[in-house]
Amino acid sequence: MEAFFSHLKEEWFRIQKPESLHAFHSGLTAYLDWWNTTRIQQRLDYLSPDEYRAQQSAIA
Question: Where is the signal peptide, in residue numbers (predicted)?
Fold first, then answer.
């Protein structure tokens, strides 16, 4: 969990620097969607979650 927050701060918050609550909320929502679908994860053998799910579906 700590690693996630570290990545969140480094990959999104320090780069985006949202200036309003709306910008913060919409940017965070987009980042979480990207994290949960597209971002390559070491624990998934360097696949994105979507790629990993597709690979597991093909195996089953």
Answer: none
28 within a domain of the structure (yes/no): yes
Report angle CA 7, 39, 20 to the nearest 5 degrees.
55
Q: Quick: pLDDT tens for 14-28.
A: 888 889 999 999 999
| pTM exceeds cut of 0.70 | yes
Is the Cβ–Cβ distance between 16 and 29 less than 8 Å? no
Burial class (CB within 10 angstroms; exposed 0-12, middle 13-18, buried 19+) of 27: middle
Whether residue 52 is contained in a domain is answered as: yes
Tokens in use for 48? 């994105």
Amino acid residing at 4: F
Residue ranges with strand state E in 1-60: none
